[in-house]
Amino acid sequence: MKEMKIGFIGGGNMASSIIGGLVASGMAANNIWASDPNADSLAKLKDVAPVNTGNDNQALIAQVDVLILAVKPQIMKVVALDIAASVQAHQPLVITIAAGVTSGSLATWLGGAPAIVRCMPNTPALVRSGATGLFANSQVNDSQRQQATAILEAVGVALWVEQENQLDAVTAVSGSGPAYFFLVMEAMQAAGQNMGLSEDVAKQLTLQTALGAAQMAINSDVDAAELRRRVTSPKGTTERAINMLEEGGLRQLFAQALEGARIRAEELAIELEGE
């Protein structure tokens, strides 16, 4: 990966996070290019690492092996149409992090059949603890898959799906997932305060418990269900709380909520294609 040359069109938070992760993993900053019409965004990227910056997308494409499109979904079509000739001429691997833009639509806008990887990172990528789902179209070869994996692993875990529509499920589980955990933390902290804990104590207990539980699950050789059973003593406090959550329909609510998120991801893709 150290010899790979990577270009970013779009210099926002996710681009900044990936660039920081790449440089931290050993990639030379002078092998990274970034283009953005906003000078402030480019200046912030320079604060992350001394990468090559500018606002000429075509010039950037001529320099790189991998092109990462880190622009908002609503402007992806305009950007893609503008760079189509350069992409066709230089044939970089194209990685898009724009939610809802299908590989088929992007290929059409780019003027042919380029190698495209769609990925769905989540916001913890901003602290290099992300979970990213990836899908490759048929033009992507094994070497390019490895390149995409290495790039996204710089900000967390990178996992491949074989069907593009599975990215909608990825969106429901991990793309939107941080918000579910934030809601649980919010509820736990509020409950702690209602039971007499100070705001600071309730917050710290909640956050550290969430962190510790996640670390235990990641490092364990058993699944989450078994970990839960091991800490749920018969007739104890944990059992009573778990029973109340189960009786309240927690599992069904999560199933319905994630299915709702998956359906909304499908709807957003249709809406974007219609623009």
Describe this structure in words.
The protein has 275 residues and is of the alpha/beta class. The chain is 56% helix and 13% strand. It has 12 helices and 8 strands. It has an 8-stranded mixed beta sheet, sandwiched between helices. The longest helix is centred in the last third of the chain and has 24 residues, at 250-273.
Any key phrases for this structure?
alpha/beta; elongated; ProC C-terminal domain-like fold; 2 domains; Rossmann fold; 8-stranded mixed sheet; about 55% helix; about 280 residues
The averaged pLDDT comes out at 94
Largest sheet: 8 strands, mixed
The dominant shape is: elongated
Q: What is the CATH topology classification name of the largest domain?
A: Rossmann fold
By secondary-structure content and strand pairing, the structural class works out as alpha/beta
CATH superfamily grouping of the largest domain: NAD(P)-binding Rossmann-like Domain
Name the helix and strand elements from N-terminus to C-terminus, one letter apiece: EHEHEHEHEHEEHEHHHHHH
The CATH architecture term of the largest domain is 3-Layer(aba) Sandwich
According to DSSP, the number of beta strands is 8
Topology:
Layout: E1 6-9, H1 13-24, E2 32-35, H2 39-48, E3 52-54, H3 57-61, E4 66-69, H4 73-90, E5 93-96, H5 103-109, E6 116-120, E7 130-136, H6 142-153, E8 156-160, H7 166-175, H8 177-194, H9 199-219, H10 224-230, H11 237-247, H12 250-273
Parallel strand pairs: 1-2, 1-4, 2-3, 4-5, 5-6, 7-8
Antiparallel strand pairs: 6-7
Helix pairs in contact: 7-12, 8-9
